[in-house]
Write a structure and sequence with these properties.
The protein has 273 residues and is of the alpha/beta class. Helices cover 47% and strands 14% of the residues. Bound molecules: nicotinamide-adenine-dinucleotide.
Length: 273
């Protein structure tokens, strides 16, 4: 399979190395220095597994700034360009994603585009209409910076989304999920094929849940200062409790979420102040 990846950052480079084990991969970036380093088998970012794989593995990987020719014969084009949040405009800046889609449409309208950049919920459906390009999938990325390739070699799950009801693109989504799985070391990886907006929401909910947990532990940390917290039996107990709390949430026992303040399970929290 011929795969071109736009953006040689944490997401693009880790996916490029993962996929270049079994596919012909071309990595496109706008920074010449990054291109030179990758073509010399050196990583422009600090990531142990990427550094090791570039040096020691037999990868079919080339980096270039010539976007037009890199897109022109690709079966899949993965977009992993930045979508930084602009606090003034209060939205994600998706300009670079749209610039890549325009180039792909110009050079290779039959290529299947997979957006891996983080985008707002509903974005992929709207950009398909805005740029009159129907071949667009979305696949959320869950890696950590510095462990980017490791997290793709041992993924918690693989999610690829296609437009609801489009059988042919659904099949492309399934094929793409198999390419990611083929490159992974962990083999029992759950694969979830969803519709576009659902996958964007999964990414948003996962990030929000993570932020919530970090804030929760930061809040309680001073209470337990001096004692082992992470990896302790407190964390173990929360793991056991998670299943039960999922049932409570899904049963909507916490039906009126605005009313949590008066519930028994939040009383202890509020009594701290
Ligand atoms: N870093 C993470 O942990 C992480 C995790 C999940 C999702 N994401 C999302 O993935 C996307 C990429 O993140 P990243 O951390 O890899 O970013 P990054 O800044 O490390 O890399 C992005 C790369 O894209 C290049 N680029 C910019 N415009 C381009 C264009 N038009 N064509 C080709 N290349 C272009 C930049 O030069 C840069 O090398 C973002 O939307 C981010 O939110 C990041």
């Amino acid at each position: 399979m011929k795969i071109t990846i736009a953006g040689a950052g944490y997401v693009g480079l880790s996916n490029a190395v993962l996929l270049a084990q079994h596919n012909q991969v071309t990595l496109v970036d706008v920074i010449q220095e990054k291109i030179n380093l990758i073509n010399q088998h050196k990583s422009p970012i600090a990531d142990k597994e990427i550094e090791d794989y570039l040096l020691t593995k037999d990868l079919d990987l080339t980096a270039t700034m010539d976007a037009g020719s890199a897109y022109s014969d690709a079966d899949y084009v993965i977009i992993s360009t930045p979508t930084n949040y602009d606090p003034e405009k209060n939205h994600f800046d998706t300009t670079s994603v749209e610039a890549v889609i325009r180039q792909v449409v110009e050079h290779n309208p039959n290529a299947v585009i997979v957006i891996k950049s983080t985008v707002p919920v509903g974005y992929t459906v709207s950009v398909r209409e805005k740029l009159r390009c129907s071949n667009i999938l979305f696949s959320p990325e869950f890696l950590r910076e510095g462990r980017a390739l490791y997290d793709n070699l041992y993924p918690s799950r693989i999610i690829v989304a296609a437009p609801r009801g489009d059988e042919s693109l659904y099949e492309k989504a399934r094929q793409f999920s198999e390419l990611l799985k083929e490159g992974a070391i962990k083999k029992d990886v759950p694969i979830l094929l969803t519709d576009l907006t659902e996958a964007e929401a999964i990414k948003l909910f996962a990030n929000t849940y993570l932020a919530l947990r970090v804030a929760f532990f930061n809040e309680y940390e001073p209470t337990y200062s001096g004692k082992l917290f992470f990896g302790s039996r407190i964390i173990q107990d929360l793991k056991e409790f998670k299943e039960m709390s999922d049932v409570i949430v899904s049963n909507r026992y916490a039906a009126d979420l605005a009313d949590v303040k008066d519930k028994v399970y939040t009383r202890d929290l509020y009594m701290r102040d």
